[in-house]
Amino acid sequence: MTEQDCTKTESKRARVRRLVIDPLAAGGMRGKHGTSPDTQRAFLDRVCDELARLSDRQLVMMRGWMEANGEGSAKCFWPAFVSIAGVAQGLCPRPIEELPELSSWFGSRAGPEAAGVPGRLVEELRFIERKRRPPVMVGEAAMVARRAAELHSDVLRARELRDCGRMYDEALLGRYDRDKARAEALVAKGEAGRAAGDAA
Known about the structure:
With 200 residues, the protein is mostly helical.
C-alpha cells in the first residue's frame, strides 16, 4: 500500500492522534491523577472529534499550543477541553452549518436582507462563524457593512482581471464563491421553511 493509499484510509480521529495526541503522550502529557482509563479515552476521543476539521498545519500548531499550556505544576496534564476548543475555534472556526442555533440567523428575515446588499451575506457568514454570534453589538453592523463593501470591490476587481486574462487573486474568488453559496443555501432553507409554515 502506498503512502497516498494510507492517507486515504486514515480516519479523522487517527489523523489527530498521529499529529497531536500521540506525540504529546510520548512526551509525557497525561490525564490528571485519578482519571480512569475510560474517562481518559472518552476525553481524548472528544478532543480528536473537535480538532478533526483542522488542517495538518493547524494541528501541528495546536500540538505546540497544548504542549506549552499543559495543566498542573509540571505542565504535563492535558489542557481543559474548553481551552482546546477555544484555540481550535480561533485557528479554524466550526462551520455554521454544524451550529443550527447560529445558521437560523440566515433563515430569519436577516438572511434575505443581507442578501440584498453586495458582499453583506458573505461577511455576515464569516463574522458569525468567527464570533459564534450575529453582529448585534454596537458598531458591529456598521463594521460588517464596511467590510462587505470592501469585499465586494475586491471581488469585482478580481473578476475584471480574470476576464481580461490577467493575474488575479484566485483564492479570494474561490473562497468568496464558496462562502456565498453556503450562505445562500441557508437563506433558501429558511425561506422554504417559512413558506411551508405559511402554507400550513
